[in-house]
From TrEMBL:
The lineage of its organism: Bacteria, Pseudomonadati, Pseudomonadota, Alphaproteobacteria, Rhodobacterales. SUPFAM superfamilies: S-adenosyl-L-methionine-dependent methyltransferases. GO terms for molecular function: O-methyltransferase activity. InterPro entries: FkbM_Methyltransferase, FkbM_mtfrase, SAM-dependent_MTases_sf. PANTHER family: NODULATION PROTEIN (PTHR36973:SF4), SLL1456 PROTEIN-RELATED (PTHR36973). It comes from Ruegeria meonggei. This is Methyltransferase FkbM domain-containing protein. Residues 43-166 form the Methyltransferase FkbM domain. Gene3D superfamilies: Vaccinia Virus protein VP39.
């Protein structure tokens, strides 16, 4: 595999996914703000199905994806655990009119603008639009990720890679939900800290039914009878090169 120098970032894990040839025939991107650069760079020829309920972002989204030459469909809905309508709380952390966050979580909405928006389950979308499978699903919806998963049990069956944003308080719950749906944790990336404390991460999962032989070899469990001390391996390796250097010096001396 090419990507031996791994880093805890979406760019790095997506390169690893490409190197391992994990199948991704389309991208389902739930909650994109203006764009998801990492997915655009990793999968420039696949179709991207975009989901964003904040109307303020639509012009910029369409411009970004057109300029990048990405084949896309923009779905102007909030993905949730039911089809219908819901209240979306929008806010800004910049002290301007630009919307930076939106949520369907039903949390305290004081000081936030409330908008009525259409909602859609991923199961409904996949059944109606039949995106090319297997596909990658990325979910970043400011706290409502679990609602998205609740509305996607059938959609997840044809998902090869699942990426979920998680605040530190939600990490265990979201891992449990993904594992219950049949996924295996592949990586934890884009680790964010707030005042020195872990605050937020992106969890990356793989569907083992769609994993490749490269992935299976890289993650196979070694039985205890086959364990080998890393220190012994290192000493053996170091001893080999010491002998090589000795032989070379001896040869040079004639």
């Amino acid at each position: 595999m090419k990507s031996q120098q791994r880093q805890p970032s979406k760019n790095s894990v997506l390169q690893q996914i490409r190197d391992m040839e994990i199948p991704v025939k389309s991208v389902i991107d739930v909650g994109i703000h203006f764009q998801t650069r990492e997915l655009m760079a990793a999968f420039p020829t696949q179709k991207h199905y975009l989901f964003e309920p904040v109307a303020d972002h639509y012009d910029k989204i369409e411009q970004n994806y057109r300029d990048a030459g990405i084949d896309y469909d923009l779905n102007k809905v909030a993905v949730s655990n039911q089809d219908g309508f819901a209240d979306l709380a929008v806010s800004s952390i910049r002290g301007t009119d630009e919307v930076t966050h939106s949520s369907l979580t039903g949390a305290d909405s004081r000081g936030q603008e409330i908008r009525r928006v259409p909602t859609l389950k991923l199961d409904t979308f996949v059944a109606e639009h039949k995106p090319a499978a297997p596909y990658l699903i990325k979910i970043d919806v400011d706290g409502a990720e679990e609602m998205v998963l609740q509305g996607a049990p059938k959609a997840l069956e044809d998902c090869s890679i699942l990426i979920i944003e998680a605040a530190v308080s939600a990490v265990s719950t979201r891992i449990e939900m993904a594992v219950a749906a049949g996924f295996v944790l592949l990586d934890i990336v884009d680790i964010c800290y707030n005042q020195g404390c872990l605050w937020q991460v992106d969890l990356v999962f793989i569907n083992p039914n769609l994993g490749t032989e490269d992935w299976r070899r890289a993650t196979q469990i070694v039985e205890p009878d086959n364990w080998c001390s890393l220190r012994l391996v290192r000493h053996s390796r170091d001893g080999f090169w010491k002998r090589k250097r000795y032989q070379l010096r001896k040869k040079l001396r004639g």
